[in-house]
Write a structure and sequence with these properties.
Oligomer: single chain
CATH class: Alpha Beta
CATH topology: Enolase-like, domain 1
Order of helices and strands: HHEEEHHH
Strand order of the largest sheet: 1-2-3
Number of strands: 3
CATH superfamily: DNA repair protein Rad52/59/22
């Protein structure tokens, strides 16, 4: 595993900026989309992003409502280009006053975080006490 400098950097847990899941709709610890985006840019530079599909559900009063996206990120990590697809969803998609544009932004932000998790960034927030990737990469 020699030459995985960027992967090692991505796997390091957020030591600050972590928020509690006490916000409405949040479960467990999380970091804001802006923090994930900054770490991606700081460690990898610019990246490609493409919405593959917008997922809609029909609501009896609201009609067609955006409830998620399938997103693809293209990242160059340690010299290799990787394409990652993930799903992002909208918390409380039928909340009054939201537009499909708002929902699309929420789903895209969620999908970016999930793509980042697939390359180790923020994975500790999902794994909780079972997280070991950062230590494993440091040993190598």
């Amino acid at each position: 595993m020699i030459g995985l400098t960027q992967l090692n950097d991505l796997a390091k847990p957020f030591t600050s900026l972590v928020k509690s899941g006490s916000d409405a709709g949040k479960f467990g610890d999380y970091v804001e989309h802006s923090a994930v985006n900054q770490r991606l840019l700081a460690h990898l530079g610019p990246f490609d992003q493409r919405v593959i599909e917008v997922v809609y559900d029909i609501h009896p009063d609201l009609g067609q409502v955006c409830t998620g996206v399938i997103l693809e990120l293209g990242l160059r990590i340690d010299g290799e280009y990787r394409m990652i697809q993930e799903v992002g969803d909208v918390e409380h998609p039928f909340r009054k006053g939201r537009t499909n544009g708002d929902r699309l932004k929420m789903a895209t932000s969620d999908a970016i975080k999930r793509c980042a998790m697939r390359v180790g960034l923020g994975l500790h927030l999902y794994a909780q006490n079972d997280y070991f990737l950062d230590k494993l990469l440091e040993e190598k």
